[in-house]
Structure formats: C-alpha cells, structure tokens
C-alpha cells in the first residue's frame, strides 16, 4: 500500500528476500533437493543432493507454496511491486512452478501436482507481466511467450497422458493388493506409499464432557462406571474427509460382552443400541450392526484383546470396520450426519469394561481444489483456459502485443 513512499533500493531488497523464500519453498516441493536457478526453458544449473522426502511432506510443501503465492498476489497490488515482480528472475521462477519435472521417473509429469499453486502462478503472471518495463529485451519477452505456449501444449497433450499412465499403474497396484489378500488371507499387505499419505491426528482421545456413566483414563481409555448403560465420544469431531482409528478392547467379560464401537452424532438423544438413530454401532458379542434397528449384515464378533479398525469416510458417507488387521469391510452406507465422533457404547449394567482409542489418522491427503472455470471441467481444460486467458491479456498490452500476437 505504501510502497511508493519507500526508496526503490529498500523495495528491491524486500522483493529479493521474498523471492529467496519462494525458491526455498519450491526446492522443498521436489522429491530430491535440486537448484531452482534456471531459465524459462527449464534448464537447471544445480545438482541434486539426493535427499528424498515423503509424499506427505511433498503435499504439505505444495500447500505451503500455494499459501505463499496468495501472499505474493496481495503485495502485487502495488504498481511498483508489480514492475519488480515482472522481472526476469521472478518470471523464470513462476514459469518453473508451472513446468514439468526435470528429474525422476517421468519428466512428462508436472513439477507441482496440486492444481491450486499452478493456477495461482498463472494468475500472478497475468497480474504482473503487463507491468514489465518496456525497455526489457525483446528476447526475454519472446522466450516467456514461447514457454507459455509450450506449457499450454503440454497441459493439453503430454501431461494428461502421463497422469493417465500413472493412475493406471496405481490401479494395477490396487489389483495386485487384492489378489495378494485373496491368495494370502492371513497376511497383511504393507503399502508404504499409502502409509506415507496418512496424516496422524495428535490430540485424539475421549472427551470427558461427552460421556455418560463413564470415566476417561489418560485421555485415550474409556472406562465403564457404575450407573447402568453409558457411552463416551471422542474429542475430535469429523465433518469431512476420511479418518481411520483403532479401538483396543482392554477389558471385557469374555462370552458376555457388553460393548459396541462405532461413530455417533452429538448430542445423543437415544443411546440404546437397538433403537438409536444417533449412533452407528458394531456389537462385540454377536458382530451385529445397529442403526435405527438391527441391520442384516453381520461382522465377526470381538472380545478382550482384540482391536477394531474404524474407517469413517464422510465424503463417501460410509463407515467400515476391520478386526485385528483384517481389511475393513463396509458396514454402513448413506451415513446422514454433518459431524460425527468416534463412539464407544456400553449396554451392560456391569461396570469395569475398558476400551482404548489409538492411531487416529487422516487417510490420504486433502483433495485438490475443485476446478471452477469452466465449471465442472477436467483439470487439463481448466489449466488450458487459464493459459489462454493469460496470453489474451498479454496480446492486449502494448509491451507484449507483438510477441503474444
């Protein structure tokens, strides 16, 4: 806002510092640490150090990159800053964000996988490039426009094909996993890639304020107390996404189990497992499922020493359960609730049962931003529209009309 009141040397030093921060974030978005000093043709002057990072860290870095580009867009509202951001150094870095991988298994894939930072980079270019100093060399402008057209072509043809081939490989791996489980039902398929994409929820446990006839031990263990039937809800309300956690049956009356596990909305009006519409429950004694009555599907029973994996997918509106490491089986569909909590319900009148909740994770990663222009269009069409809009804007300005036209 007040950039025009500052000395140009001060502004240049601040912009240079911001650019250094952007480069640092861009390095962290790559599987191996490589230099980002290069030109718009994608040539890199550095060498990789071989420091591999996990997929979870890469996706977190891409989200940070998007957030940082939002900040840069805000400071680009000043004419003085737009002129500096339109320089060769910034333009090359933004085009690098939009470019394809320069190393790895498939250089046809985009350097940045998430849509949000790529769209923000295009929008930032559209904001600052018209402010480029007219005395800038014609060669630089021609190079920028050439790179934009190359990236437009890649996003229409090369990148979609590479992404489709990658998705086919992922599908093939899923089929191999299912075949392995059919041929070796007692073994567990160790999928390191999937584990990397799961994000642990650190502050998970039971909420003492959402318990009835129960006490909480050590935040994670629910103990059935005197007073009759009771329940306890988790301290994490889930409104979207896919979450997974485990219930360990610490103490139970073997052969006369009185525990149900599952999910519930809050507040709870009816906590009878046979009639409640506020809970989706899996019964230990018989393996029956309950929501607004008993369901026809029956899962394996469980008792003291067993653990139950719960998978709640509110995007798909489903709840699944798995016993002792088995693949979770779909138990409930069309789950109609805006917010759900992990739930343990004790329907016996004998106190003493204990259930521990552990290993809560967000499965996978947050979904990428949904394309909005054109509405409901596939990702390549959204990016192509953004590139075309940028090139049209450049062709309408005097500084770029000759090159972009």
TrEMBL record:
Top-rank lineage group of the source organism: Eukaryota
SMART domains the UniProt entry points to: SPRY
Annotated ranges, domain B30.2/SPRY: 168-362
Renumbered residue ranges of the record's region Disordered: 32-51
InterPro entries, sorted: B30.2/SPRY, B30.2/SPRY_sf, ConA-like_dom_sf, FBXO45-Fsn/SPSB_families, SPRY_dom, SPRY_HERC1
CDD domains named among the record's database cross-references: SPRY_HERC1 (cd12881)
Short name of one Pfam family: SPRY
PANTHER family in the cross-refs: B30.2_SPRY DOMAIN-CONTAINING PROTEIN, SPRY DOMAIN CONTAINING SOCS BOX PROTEIN
Protein's UniProt name: B30.2/SPRY domain-containing protein
Organism: Periplaneta americana
Organism ancestry: Eukaryota, Metazoa, Ecdysozoa, Arthropoda, Hexapoda
């Amino acid at each position: 806002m007040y950039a025009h009141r500052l000395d140009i040397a001060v502004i240049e030093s601040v912009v240079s510092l911001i650019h250094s921060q952007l480069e640092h974030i861009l390095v962290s978005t790559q599987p191996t640490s490589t230099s980002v000093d290069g030109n718009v043709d994608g040539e890199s002057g550095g060498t990789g150090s071989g420091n591999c990072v996990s997929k979870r860290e890469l996706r977190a870095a891409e989200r940070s990159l998007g957030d940082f580009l939002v900040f840069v867009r805000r400071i680009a509202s000043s004419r003085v800053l737009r002129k500096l951001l339109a320089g060769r150094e910034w333009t090359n870095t933004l085009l690098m964000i939009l470019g394809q991988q320069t190393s790895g298994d498939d250089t046809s894939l985009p350097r940045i996988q998430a849509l949000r930072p790529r769209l923000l980079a295009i929008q930032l270019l559209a904001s600052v490039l018209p402010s480029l100093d007219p005395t800038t060399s014609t060669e630089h402008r021609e190079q920028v426009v050439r790179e934009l057209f190359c990236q437009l072509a890649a996003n229409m043809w090369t990148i979609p094909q590479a992404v489709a081939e990658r998705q086919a490989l992922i599908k093939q791996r899923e089929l191999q996993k299912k075949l392995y489980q059919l041929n070796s039902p007692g073994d567990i398929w160790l999928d390191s890639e999937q584990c990397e994409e799961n994000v642990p929820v650190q502050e998970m446990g039971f909420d003492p304020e959402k318990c009835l006839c129960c006490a909480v031990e050590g935040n994670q263990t629910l103990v059935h107390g005197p007073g009759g039937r009771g329940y306890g809800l988790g301290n994490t309300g889930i409104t979207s996404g896919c979450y997974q956690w485990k219930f360990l049956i610490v103490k139970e009356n073997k052969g006369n189990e009185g525990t149900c596990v599952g999910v519930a909305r809050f507040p709870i009006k009816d906590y009878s497992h046979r009639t409640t519409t506020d809970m989706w429950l899996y019964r230990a004694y018989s393996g029956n499922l309950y929501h607004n009555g008993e369901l026809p599907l029956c899962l394996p029973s469980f008792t003291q020493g067993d653990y139950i994996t719960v998978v709640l997918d509110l995007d798909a509106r489903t709840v699944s359960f798995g016993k002792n490491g088995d693949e979770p089986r779909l138990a409930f569909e069309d789950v109609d609730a805006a917010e759900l909590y992990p739930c343990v319900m004790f329907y016996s009148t004998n106190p003493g049962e204990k259930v521990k909740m552990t290993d809560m994770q967000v499965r996978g990663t947050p979904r990428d931003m949904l394309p909005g222009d054109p509405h409901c269009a596939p990702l390549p069409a959204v990016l192509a529209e953004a590139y075309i809009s940028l090139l049209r804007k450049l062709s309408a300005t005097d500084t770029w009309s000759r090159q972009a036209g």
